[in-house]
């Protein structure tokens, strides 16, 4: 498949515009429209069955997925079989866990036993996973029904979700714009009601940017909270990114993120960084003072992004929280460190990308290394790389001190609105602009603090949102403040795909 061109944009826009005009809302309270929490409550009360929920989601997939291409594999037979087993267990008074009977989409870079794991790579079209990844083991233990696989860019290394094997995932709000990446298929599937929950992973925004682009919440937990292993193209040792790469949930409301996090979290001995740590309680009886980052020294912010930040500030103040403007230059330095540490570790993947990658990923990775070279030189030394990790530790300590006084920080997801399809790899200048705009997406993984994206409404037909960052392993604090913002904003999803 060649890179998407304007003719494809306009054809998709016409198709989705016509569909949006002709399609009415499904009947109120159809099972696919329920939140995961509502569905879980109905299952335990006996007013809903997992089979009915899965069948409803499958009908929704049949209706919507041909137009947005969010899921590239649907295991209807296996999901219905698992749903029947979940229903039988409930009639016998047994429940596997918080996700018992709830459908979940799995990202196509994650091993599910017996299913294709292609990672958007044509050469892996026949790759069938022989075992579950640890994060999938956790989801099964929590009772989740694995419904299908969500689309991702080639090698899951881009801010979109298109590849030569499975095609393009379209942003349900505008086919001209990216759904985000690399968990773009996951966020689109959740936004359009195909599944209530989706699994993603994030090292440079791959959960948070799609959540932002598609108008749904997404959580990047603290590394170690969820035991996950990335399933790369060539063996489990191909990448050494475990210090920053995390698994996390995407949902249609913050409370559903909490539900999935509860089922996701835990210890797995297969994962070196897995930490068997309970969720700590909040400290202090008074509401925390929240720091807001209204400015940064990296690039200008759009008026839309600044307005979304102010809407969140107003919502927090109305709920009784004090919000104080801060500058946290350590985050900006951490963004630059991402381009040393992650890009040097990614060099192990370059032979695979050169051999099996499609044209967009080759262009994007080439521009990534060009930008990294502008920051760190074309050939960083081993001592420079080691010093980068030493500096990382110092920055973590300094930010942790800031978080003692301001346990929650409010900041943008990116400094601009969602990008057009292919915008970020169109040229080196375009890549520089996109990389600078997305600085908050990279800064937080370097330091290992949990972060949450919360939608704040629409601007000119596209979702807007903000990001919350908290103390390590205090995901519940971040989720609680996220719910305050969410309660003051319009609920955007589930939604019908519309034209741009």
Q: What class would the helix/strand composition place it in? A: alpha/beta
Give the proportion of residues in helices.
40-55%
Strand and helix order: HHHEHEHEEEHEHEEHEHEHHHHEHHEEH
Number of strands: 13
What gap, in angstroms, lies between the N and C termini? Answer: 23 Å
Major β-sheet annotation:
6 strands, mixed
Overall average residue pLDDT: 92
Strand content: 5-15%
- Model regions low in confidence, pLDDT < 50 over at least 5 residues: 1-27, 233-238
| Side-by-side strand order of the widest sheet | 7-12-13-11-9-10
Radius of gyration: 21 Å
Summed up, the helix count is: 16
Task: Tell me, briefly, the overall form.
Answer: globular
3D architecture notes:
With 500 residues, the protein is an alpha/beta fold. It has helices spanning 6-22, 36-45, 50-68, 76-91, 134-141, 184-191, 208-214, 254-264, 303-318, 329-346, 350-356, 359-376, 382-405, 428-437, 439-447, 475-487; strands spanning 71-74, 103-107, 145-150, 162-163, 167-168, 197-202, 218-220, 246-251, 290-292, 323-325, 408-411, 451-459, 462-470. It has a six-stranded mixed beta sheet with strand order 7-12-13-11-9-10, sandwiched between helices. A five-stranded mixed beta sheet has the order 1-3-2-6-8, with helices on both faces. Strand 9 (290-292), helix 9 (303-318) and strand 10 form a beta-alpha-beta unit. The chain is globular.
Sum up the structure in keywords.
disordered N terminus, 13 strands, alpha/beta, 500 residues
């Amino acid at each position: 498949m060649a890179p998407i061109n304007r003719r494809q944009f306009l054809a998709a826009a016409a198709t989705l515009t016509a569909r949006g005009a002709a399609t009415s809302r499904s009947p109120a309270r159809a099972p696919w429209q329920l939140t995961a929490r509502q569905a879980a409550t109905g299952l335990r009360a006996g007013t809903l069955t997992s089979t009915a929920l899965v069948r409803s989601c499958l009908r929704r997939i049949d209706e919507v997925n041909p137009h947005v291409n969010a899921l590239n594999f649907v295991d209807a037979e296996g999901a219905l079989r698992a749903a029947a087993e979940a229903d039988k267990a409930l009639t016998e008074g047994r429940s596997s866990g918080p996700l018992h009977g709830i459908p979940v989409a799995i990202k196509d870079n994650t091993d599910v036993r017996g299913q294709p794991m292609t990672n958007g790579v044509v050469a892996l079209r026949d790759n069938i996973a022989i075992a579950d990844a640890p994060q999938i083991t956790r989801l099964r233990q929590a009772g989740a029904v694995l419904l299908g696989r969500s689309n991702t860019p080639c090698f899951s290394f881009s801010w979109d979700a298109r590849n030569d094997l499975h095609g393009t995932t379209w942003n349900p709000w505008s086919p001209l714009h990216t759904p985000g990446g690399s968990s773009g298929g996951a966020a689109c599937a959740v936004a359009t009601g195909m599944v209530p929950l989706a699994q993603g992973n994030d090292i440079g925004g791959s959960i948070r940017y799609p959540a932002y682009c598609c108008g749904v919440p997404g959580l990047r937990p603290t590394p170690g909270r969820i035991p996950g292993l990335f399933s790369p193209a060539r063996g489990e040792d191909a990448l050494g990114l475990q210090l920053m790469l995390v698994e996390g949930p995407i949902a249609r409301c913050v409370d559903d993120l909490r539900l999935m996090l509860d089922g996701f979290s835990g210890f797995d001995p297969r994962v070196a960084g897995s930490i068997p740590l309970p969720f700590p309680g909040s400290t202090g009886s008074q509401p925390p003072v929240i720091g807001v980052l209204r400015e940064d020294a990296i690039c200008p912010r759009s008026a839309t992004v600044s307005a979304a930040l102010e809407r969140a500030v107003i919502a927090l103040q109305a709920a009784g929280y004090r919000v104080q403007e801060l500058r946290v230059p350590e985050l900006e330095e951490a963004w630059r460190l991402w381009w040393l540490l992650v890009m040097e570790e990614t060099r192990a993947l370059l032979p695979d990308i050169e051999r099996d990658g499609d044209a967009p990923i080759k262009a994007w990775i080439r521009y990534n290394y060009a930008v990294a070279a502008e920051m760190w030189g074309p050939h960083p030394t081993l001592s420079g790389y080691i010093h980068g990790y030493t500096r990382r530790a110092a920055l973590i300590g300094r930010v942790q001190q800031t978080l003692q006084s301001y346990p929650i920080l409010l900041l943008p997801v990116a400094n601009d609105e969602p990008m057009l399809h292919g915008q970020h790899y169109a040229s080196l200048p375009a890549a520089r602009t996109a990389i600078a705009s997305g600085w908050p997406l990279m800064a937080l993984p370097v330091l290992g603090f949990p972060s949450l994206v919360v939608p704040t409404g629409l601007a000119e037909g596209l979702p807007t949102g903000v990001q919350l960052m908290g103390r390590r392993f205090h995901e519940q604090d971040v989720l609680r403040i996220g719910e305050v913002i969410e309660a003051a904003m319009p609920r955007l999803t589930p939604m019908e795909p519309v034209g741009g």
